[in-house]
C-alpha cells in the first residue's frame, strides 16, 4: 500500500466514513489526556522514589516509565499526523496507524499486568484467583498482535473484539478487588470498629476507582460506538493515554503505602489481642 493516499481513498479502503473533524477532535482529546498522564506519571515517580524502598520500587518505576515513553511516542505521532497529514487533507499511512496501535497494545499489556499484580497482592498472593484473568490477558494480547499484523479490513472492523476482551479483563479484576475489599472492610469493622474501618475503607475505595478508570472510559467508548455508530472515533485516540493514567494512580497508592496486607495485619492483631488498634498506614518495604 502506498504511504500517501488521499482521504477518500483511505476511507474507501477501510470501508468507513471517518471524518476530518472526528479525527481532529479525537486527537485533541488525546493531547489533553496526555497532559493528565504527565502529571500523574510525575507524581507517581516522585512518590515511589521518596516513599518506597527495595526492588518493588524499581519494578514499578520502570513499568510506569515505559508506559509514559510509549504514551509520549503515541502523542508525538498524533501531532505529526495532525500537521503532516490531516491539515493537508492527506490520508494517514497505515504504517503509522499500526505503530500507534502496537504502542497501545504493549501499554495495555503492561497496565493489565500491574492491575493483575494488584489483584494478586490484595488476595494474599493467591494464584487460583488470578487464573481466569491471566487467560483473558493472554487472549486479549494475542488478539492485539493478530490485528496489528492482519489485513486492513480486519484491522479496521474487528478491533472491537479485542476492546471487549480487554474490557472484560478489567471488569473481572476490578470485581475481584471490590469483592476482596468488601470482605476486608467487614472484617475490619468487627476487629476495630466502624470509625477506623471507615477511614481505611475510603482509602481502599480510591484504589478501586483508580483501577476502574480505564474500564469506564473503554465501556463508554464501546457503548457509544454500538449506539451511535462504529465511525464515532472521538474517544478512540484517548485510550492510548487513559491506559497509562490508571496504572499511575494505582502506583501512587502503592507508593503511599496503602497495601492490602496492612489491613490484614490490623485485622489479625485486633482478633488476637481483643484490644482497640490504632489504624495507621504502613509504608511497604518490599
UniProtKB/TrEMBL annotation:
TM stretches of this protein: 20-46, 58-83, 130-149, 161-179, 200-220, 232-251
This protein's UniProt keywords: Membrane, Transmembrane, Transmembrane helix
Record-given protein name: Uncharacterized protein
